[in-house]
Predict the structure.
Amino acid sequence: MCECCNGKKDIYRPQLWTINKHRMLNGTEMYLHLDPDSGKAFDYIPGQFVEVSLAGIGEAPISISSSPTQKGLELVVRNVGGLTKAIHKLKAGDKLGIRGPYGSTYPVSQAKGKDLVFICGGIGLVPQLSFIRYAMDHRADYGSITVLIGTKCHDMRLFREEIALWSERKDITIIETIDEAHDCWDGNVGVVTTLIPRVESDLPASQVLVCGPPIMYKFVLMALAEAGVPEENIYVNLERRMKCGVGKCGHCQINDKYVCQDGPVFRWSDLALVPEAI
Amino acid sequence: MSVSTVSKEQFRSFVAALIGSEQTVVGVQAKNDKFAFGPLRRAEDLRLDYDVTILSPRKYLLPPKETLLNFQVAGDSQTVCDCQPMVLIGVHPYDMAAISQMDELFSQGEYDTHYMNRRQAITIIACDVATASANVFASSMNTATVDSGFDILLTDIGGAYVVQADTDKGRALVKKMAGAKPAGADDMAKRKAVQEKNRTGLNKHVLECKPAFLPKLLEKTYDHPVWEDKARLCYSCGSCNQVCPTCYCFDVQDEVNWDLKTGSRCRVWDGCLLENFATVAGNHNFRKNRSARFRHRLYRKGKYVPSKIGGQIACVGCGRCVSACTAKIANPVDVYNTLLENTEIG
């Protein structure tokens, strides 16, 4: 902050965080746990994201997968571009720049007392985990919790230990499927949409939270419409290119919506008529 | 508001003195057969009779490339603040309107210190248009004259300028104009005549509706064939974005120095017509079709940005995109008028 900034913060300057734990979740997804060098509290709500940067390589928006009820910040980074490739080479003790949190949130308060149904495709499980964990830590606040998880193949499944633990509990229902059959997998085979009829809670009255690849939304939203779920009970969590995270750079715009500010979590009733959305 | 009159010769002496001061002085000058904003070295190079500049003065408010941060590779960063005092001479009313829009967009919500600090260090001497350019349509967009945003507004009334100072910065400058005297009724009448003429005369392309109507028009024309018809010829070169005074989209890039230990995070102009503007890692492009990108620009000007700035239309009628477009498809008036033709407006 310089003198002429009149005490105003530089919205583009990241704060340093230190990686204290990291491991590969599968062949492409790395789990990172970070603590802020400043030691300051970092307040966020499930659904929000941070701009993650490695000075010299670049910056990108990454969903937060931890719940605010947990300590530190957990991110999952897929090795898919220049920045994420460099992040995958980092080890414990290395630092990342973090800006945020940014964006809209899951309906953590409005959903109280209601049944929650999470529909997750692939890496779409990651941002949803923040709310799933939050709801599990405030278990009495919500009705039944159902998590449908679709993964391309057996060895890409994420957070297997945590999901296995949840699977043994009575207060959360986990139903998993993989797209391609495999000898090591004796569970469901097929896309995540095929699990929707198996949801036991009253689907039209539930809060349905959807996150996955672009193609998944189309089919899941069709299936939810058929099941009679009103659009205002559906929330989607979208991905876009972002450079600023603060509604200036123009990259994440979907018609008149800015994914970085109006999203990434949208109520489907606000988006259903917006072309280019999914 | 204080209004004075100063002779052209006296104004030139004032500019010469400004050039000799510590501030950077930027003004409109001839560049081959066109005009451009650039650092002014001699008062006589200033051309307030220009028609339009190649690029808008946006390049001094949001430079094509600016350093946001200096950093240690994989480490911490420090804010870079560029706020050298500057006087910008010769900003036309339509460009002034565009600057006022950017001021609002960069200060609303998350306050952008990089833009705003630079903006506050800039003193703007605007001037009414003396020569209409080939493609100007500011009269259609209600931006042919301007009544706010500048520090000083000049109007050429023949042998002299009428000088309106609107801010403390502006009034301080007028005090330095030797020979400036309060504007008489006659001078005010001449100024009014210039402005009246511009209000209707800067109109080489005539928009067939009031600009305020555009958001409503665009609500009904998302799937109109004009998008595909025009975009079929689009080179996706982004020239329309580059020359536009209201385009402010940017990319952010890291540059590492030769020592491989330090570097800078830079903001550079970007353009929504460029093919990969909406491409994410993994090569998924959310606006892959040329027609979708072509439409996006005109929706941004006519509907999306207006919704953020109280309904002001983000096309100010400078006509630069009309001149810059190789394929001759960028003219917003052409597109909006085509939409008006076949659209029933309730």
